[in-house]
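Researcher: Quick test of sequence recovery. Tokens follow.
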């Protein structure tokens, strides 16, 4: 969800690399990769005087490190020496000359005695200077001795990451997924992380309610012919069931209602508001079965619309036209979870011993069954999606034809233990500020995909590289917490429960979360996703097709990346992000990018947004003042003070919280700045409100959404202004 690079307001000359550029993007395996740095503030910043502020050169960045500084005794001040007579040697010039006058020849003993005193004093004086210098450079001070982080530090850590090590780790992990007890995988991860030197690696277990497939697979039967099909399109038979092994069982929707429903199939396409409005004009949809395509909007949101409309069941599929030509999912089965997150039996609170459990075996009244594209083609009597000229024809049920089917959905609900593996590297200067790095591991009773092995191998490779540096005495400024989550396929249960368990601590102390959930889905382009305050790093590009969890074979990952060079590149890119957020004196979060994102979300012909635009303009003014008055000086080592840096980072850490809403539509992000997809540059809750108003005469929902956006923008503007006031009051107090 957060990643970061250099501050976006640090302008770069034409012959310099952009702040978001990384040497790992030059990898030949990522020829189509693009980390577009969206920056349309250059003109405004030049007018504001920011043109004088540029990236520090490599030479300047090396200044301040003890290994590059020659010891200059003349520059050391008396205050750096120990207190006592050795400081007095510098402060009183007559003190030495008093004992260096020529002694009478008749009193050679006194002369020798004075000479010994002088020699001892001189030696102790020089020794004291060295002690003072050592104490001065090693004890903490209000102003950091080093202005910037050594640019070679990150590369020194990341260069030890090797593709061969990641491949070996991946292969060791995939051999474990067949275990019915996910504790075996958790133990393997814990043992490996501990052996690498990660601190206090432990299990965090929760007893949660899982919705599992029934031993008998679900079926779809055509009423006209009586033909029975499994979800993958194969005829119902014992032989087909044996050939498909467990993949057939895992084609299901976790937490769906269960039972049998015989009804007409109505093609609702993607289930958008316009689709439902059109269909309800010509048909009665009560207790009918919707034929629904995955994509365009969150699945949970579309299911909520279908449930409100009165449908009784849903046959869910992926249209081949929505996938690349090289992908053929015709017979592929998949799993989806209808759980918005966490243990359904303990909503909003952790599943610890003694917690009250609600009876919630299903989270919807709909019978939901994922099916393959080949089964859809049989239901609608359609030929292959792609024609001879390779043009794709979307799957559609003809309006003048009626299809009646009987769908049978069977699942089992059980209490099971979900295990998280958690370890950390304690920060040096800000140990109470946490950067959380998360991946997930395979959970027994879930789909047999292999993405978890990729993510676990990648996070382990970074831990190995990081700990090799930590063992030599270095530590990041902030604490890095590494987590391998369990129960992810059922609705991110492990991570949700851990978050609810440590809610108060995390709300106060977490700086960022870096997810390595699904690191490899192809070999053509890179699609990272980040919060708006870190847009200088990525281009946001989520896809709701990822809600489908396919039972990918283990060899599929190695087919996409046989040399594991892509894995190595992703590990280094992610590692560079983690190190910068964990170790940069000033957090690489950008206030102006948030203001720009707000204004971009209000562009175009949108009704009733004049008040929002006015408020957005004030937000931008406050963000620009905050950026110029506080963040620019903080990035200048000469003006940097530890107490001001801490205050600044606290503000940066929480600045997006103004855009969190208490309750978002099903499947939507609570952070309203997050887009539904890369094509929609509007506030997600306004998009939903406009969709909601289309079939209704009332616009009350739209007015509520507009008010929520207005309050969020106003809250952010007040937040930046309050931050400026605090800094000014501190300065006034010192003056």
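Model:
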């Amino acid at each position: 969800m957060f990643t970061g690079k250099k501050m976006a307001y640090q302008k770069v000359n034409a012959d310099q690399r952009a702040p978001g550029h990384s040497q790992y993007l030059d990898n030949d395996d990522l020829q189509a990769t693009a980390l577009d740095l969206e920056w349309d503030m250059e003109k405004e910043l030049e007018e504001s005087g920011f043109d004088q502020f540029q990236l520090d050169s490599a030479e300047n960045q090396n200044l301040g490190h003890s290994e590059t500084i020659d010891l200059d005794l003349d520059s050391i001040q008396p205050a750096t020496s120990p207190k006592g007579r050795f400081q007095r040697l510098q402060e009183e010039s007559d003190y030495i000359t008093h004992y260096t006058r020529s002694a009478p020849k008749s009193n050679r003993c006194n002369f020798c005695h004075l000479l010994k005193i002088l020699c001892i004093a001189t030696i102790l004086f020089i020794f004291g200077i060295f002690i003072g210098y050592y104490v001065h450079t090693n004890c903490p001070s209000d102003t950091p001795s080093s202005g910037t982080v050594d640019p070679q530090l990150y590369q020194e850590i990341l260069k030890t990451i090797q593709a061969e090590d990641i491949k070996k780790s991946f292969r060791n992990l995939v051999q474990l997924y067949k275990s019915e007890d996910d504790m075996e995988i958790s133990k393997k991860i814990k043992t490996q992380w501990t052996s690498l030197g990660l601190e206090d690696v432990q299990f965090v277990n929760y007893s949660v309610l899982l919705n599992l497939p029934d031993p008998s697979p679900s079926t779809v039967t055509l009423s006209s012919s009586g033909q029975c099909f499994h979800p993958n399109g194969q005829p119902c038979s014992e032989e087909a069931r044996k050939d498909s092994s467990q993949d057939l069982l895992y084609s299901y929707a976790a937490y769906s209602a269960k039972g049998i429903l015989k009804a007409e199939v109505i093609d609702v396409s993607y289930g958008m508001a316009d689709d439902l409005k059109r269909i309800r004009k010509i048909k009665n949809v009560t207790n009918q079965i919707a034929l629904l395509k995955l994509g365009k909007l969150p699945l949970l949101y579309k299911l909520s619309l279908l449930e409100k409309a009165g449908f009784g069941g849903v046959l869910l599929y992926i249209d081949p036209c929505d996938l690349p030509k090289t992908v053929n999912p015709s017979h592929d089965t998949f799993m989806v979870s209808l759980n918005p997150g966490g243990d359904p039996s303990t909503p909003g609170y952790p599943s610890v011993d003694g917690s009250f459990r609600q009876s919630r075996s299903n989270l919807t009244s709909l019978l939901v069954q994922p099916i393959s594209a080949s089964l859809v083609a049989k239901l609608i009597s359609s030929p292959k999606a792609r024609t001879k000229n390779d043009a794709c024809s979307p799957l559609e049920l003809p309006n003048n034809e009626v299809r009646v089917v009987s769908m049978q959905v069977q699942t089992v609900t059980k209490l099971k233990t979900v295990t998280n593996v958690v370890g950390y590297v304690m920060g040096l200067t800000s140990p109470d500020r946490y950067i959380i790095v998360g991946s997930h591991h395979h959970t027994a009773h879930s789909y047999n995909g292999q993405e978890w092995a990729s993510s676990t191998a990648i996070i382990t490779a970074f831990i190995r590289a990081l700990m090799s540096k930590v063992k030599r005495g270095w530590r990041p400024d902030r604490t890095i917490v590494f987590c391998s989550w369990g129960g992810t396929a059922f609705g991110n249960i492990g991570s949700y429960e851990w978050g609810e368990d440590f809610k108060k601590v995390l709300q106060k102390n977490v700086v960022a979360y870096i997810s390595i959930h699904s690191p490899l889905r192809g070999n053509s382009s890179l699609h990272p996703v980040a919060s708006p305050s870190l847009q200088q790093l990525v281009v946001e590009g989520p896809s709701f097709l990822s809600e489908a969890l396919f039972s990918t074979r283990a060899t599929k990952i190695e087919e996409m990346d046989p040399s594991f060079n892509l894995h190595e590149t992703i590990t280094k890119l992610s590692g560079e992000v983690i190190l910068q957020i964990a170790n940069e004196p000033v957090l690489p979060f950008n206030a102006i990018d948030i203001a720009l994102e707000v204004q971009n979300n209000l562009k175009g012909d949108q009704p009733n947004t004049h008040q929002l635009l006015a408020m957005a303009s004030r937000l931008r003014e406050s963000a620009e003042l905050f950026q110029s008055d506080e963040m620019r000086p903080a990035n200048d080592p000469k003006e940097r003070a530890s107490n001001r840096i801490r205050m600044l980072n606290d503000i940066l850490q929480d600045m997006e919280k103004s855009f969190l809403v208490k309750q978002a539509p099903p499947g939507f992000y609570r952070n309203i700045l997050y887009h539904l997809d890369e094509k929609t540059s509007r506030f997600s809750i306004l998009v939903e409100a406009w969709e909601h108003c289309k079939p209704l005469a009332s616009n009350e929902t739209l007015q509520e959404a507009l008010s929520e956006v207005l309050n969020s923008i106003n809250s952010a503007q007040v937040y930046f202004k309050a931050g400026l006031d605090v800094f000014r009051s501190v300065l006034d107090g010192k003056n």
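The chain has three domains: 151-211+414-583, 217-238+245-383+394-409, 591-732.
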